[in-house]
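Q: I'm writing up a methods section and want to include an example of the input and output format. Could you take the sequence below and give the corresponding predicted structure tokens, formatted cleanly so I can copy it straight into the document?
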Amino acid sequence: MRIRSLVCTLLLAIGCMVGALAQAPTVYELTMEGRRIGYSRYTRTKGANGVSVNSETAIKVKLLGSPFDMTYRATGFYTTSGRLKRYTLDFQRGNEKVKVDCVVSAKTVRVTGTIAGKPTTKVLPWTPDTCVIEGNSMDTWAMAVARWGDKVPASLRVLAPLGGAIRTLRLKRLETARADTPQGTRICDRIGVQGDGVGIELLVARGKRDLIEMRVPDQKAVFRLAGLAALKGLGTYDVGARLFAIVNDPLPSADKLSFLKVHARIGVSGEKPTPASLQTPTQKFTGTAADGVVDGVFEIDRYTYTPSHAPPLGAMRPKDPALARYLRPEPNIECDDPEIRALAKKLVGGATTSWDAVKRIGDWVHKNIRYAITGSGALECLRTKKGDCGPHTWLTIALCRAAGIPARITGGVLYSEALGGSFGQHYWTRVWMGQDGWVPIDTTTGEVGTLSPAHLTLWNLAGLKSVNIEVLDYAPKLEPAAEAPRGETYRPKVGDSERWVFLADGKEIGEQTARCVQVGVEGDRAYSDWTYSFTIEVGTPPQKVSMLGGYSLFEDGSPRKLTFDAGVSGTRQTGTYTFTAGKVAADLKIGEMPVVRSLPVQRGVLLQMNNLISLFSLDCRSMRIRPGDTRVVPFFAAATMQRVELTFKSQPELQTIRVLGEDRLCIVCDVEPIKNRFFIDSATGELWRVDIAAAKLVIERR
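A: Here is the clean output for your methods example:
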């Protein structure tokens, strides 16, 4: 409070010196599905040379528990009639920061941005009727509304600073409405705004033309005029519940699926799919699709592209009206940027056909862009080498267009093992292959030339309002794995303990400990209860990952119970798995999103949880691993709530390693598909060390 008072005093002093007059701050509160999660506020100062507006917008959101907060801090300079002269913006989304400076001249606007620490500049055509609109900054909407007067224009030409583009919005007066405001009841015009597939409604007071409200109906989001109290006591909204549908029946991994049949009821925001638009060469839809609601049955086969008519590289005609728009730069697709053009030229050098070029681009994006939720555009994705499915797709499109290959975004939902098997919002790419038409590729999953039936194609560029999916049929069916043979029984004693250290390039970055706290008998089966802890610091800048909990195992290694309480950079996830005959009950909370599942589990399955090496240590004691053996062992992977089969292939020769000050004669065992190398005591079955070559990581007992 003291700092804010000091800042206000300084602003007032400067204002008096230059003869300016600062108005009281205008505040809007943001609610989503009725929950207060943010605000937008601004202060307008009038001076002899025009008007300056200082604004701040804060939005608190999470995605499956991971923080994704957004902050906008901006200053706009306008003429006395409200025409933009300059607009500067500092934007932060999670850990990502972007700076934008827009300077208007007579016929152009120069947009200079700093993305991932590097500058980028573009010059766009400017007309006097153009306004600046940054979607979540209410000051920009208020300044635009003030210029209209009593007449609502049919269209509005706007500069989107973060997008670095000029767009046209369509406007329409919808109705007259009454609105309660901090200043009393106002008679208002409700105005519909359409553009970029998003519908917005503005509530504008008659007379003075104050902006009372901005509403995004599809997202159930509302900015509404409020008092200073709106700046305090904010909650957080987790968008995961709206973007994911947990399935009734876990499926094989997407790379193994050959056919999928589901019943889906999906609300789409930004587009209105039709039954015809939902048909593709490998996707059949039977049902209804109207007013943004899709309800029906999807039958999807695996797609495979045979490039029999792939055109030569460079054969696309840029002036072809059907393709020209898919070769031009757009917001998030900076295909004219020198960095993107240089990389595209390097990647496609020597390629003879457009498809050869697409494969090189797709392979590079998949291998070089680390998956992380960022929501960035192509250029930022390239510079930071990370992004979610959107940035993967934007970068793929930008590189293709820079290489002269028409490309566009498409999307829908994708099945993955997240949350024990779920469909979530997803985007991928279509590339133009001449006579072969538009060919889908997914550089996030690494599918270039094939596309799994896990993809439900719904839109070009839209988003989910709601999603509910029931699995009706799929192929191939999951077959129960053979129960792994068990070795000699290991019976822990209270007080038994293990400590494991994680070493990256020889430097200790984390540890995991476990301790037996109780032993007992359930029916005729002995069990042991363990507590554990795990901490590690990974990434740049370092992020701390921690987990506490317990697990209970029967003496043959079969799971009885698992609990966890995990934190990643301040995000908390908790859960309990309870195993009974033939099933597991999972009760989890991921951020603020509850996940409750009941899943079948075959007898003899072992338990695996990310980073709990002590669990693998107990598992190894219960397995009969011998030199030269190859053994397939079924595990329940708690992190994904899926059954996985790990193949243990041991070398015929033993190897001596030194651990805890002693030489240990070990069986060396490669474990696929996780690509770990286990060193297992040849006499006791104890696990002494794990090597993960790809990560340059060694985990060993201490």
